[in-house]
Amino acid sequence: MAKKIILIIIVLAVAFLSLSELRAGKKASESITVSSAPESSGPAKQDQDMATEQPADTAVQSMSEDQQRALIMDHYDLWSEAWDYGDWFYTITDLDHNGRFEVITASLQGSGLYTYAEIWEVREDYSGIAECSDDLGEGGSYPDIITEAVNCYYSEASNLYYYLFDDVARSGMAENFSAKVVLCLNKGNVELTTICSKHEQYEDPESDPLVTYSDGQGNNVTKEQYEQAVANWAVGMTMNDFELEWVEVRDSN
Length: 253
What we know:
By secondary structure, this protein is an alpha+beta fold. It is built from 5 helices and 13 strands. Strands 5, 6, 7, 8, 9, 10, 11 and 12 form an 8-stranded mixed β-sheet that branches. The protein has a 5-stranded antiparallel β-sheet with strand order 4-3-2-1-13. Strand 3 (114-122) and strand 4 form a beta hairpin. The radius of gyration is 41 Å and the shape is globular.
């Protein structure tokens, strides 16, 4: 009887030890599995790393000055067809200082000394050139823009550039007109503003002319007010010389 009891105790002890070792082994196995699991390198992890390492695409398409000149000349037939008679000129420049060139075509015509012009600008996506609009009515003329140098005024308030041109015209031999006209290229639109003007009329070729002065709205002003008009208009602006290199194209007809 005593032997049976001892045998039962030994069997139970062995069973208890086996169960304890099994549980300990399971926990050890779980611990090893968790601690030794490698960092995920699947597609999701790779995509996450790429999103972190690669910055957003902020590059803006652009062209060098030489490339823009070549683009303009590639469209020569487009911007030159307006002047199919007489002599005309063109210049390539950047009036609005936005980094995209314009080509200006101009022609001085008739005894009245009227200047007719068009301005084309390189498109924002550099796919070609687009004609700039203007606020002139039909038959309206530009100031005398065919000049090698012009005063350029910059307004910090409007962030725009203004070019001050003279404008001289005649009506026969008896009348002369002259004006100070500002040209501004603003978002593809040519804005022309008269600052002041002078009218000379000769009743007798041998006598002095009758001279009248006007402001930008056509109101009569004194000579002193006329001479001060540009300075008054330019208050708060900075002024620099701006050069224009014109190329003359003569009519072959």
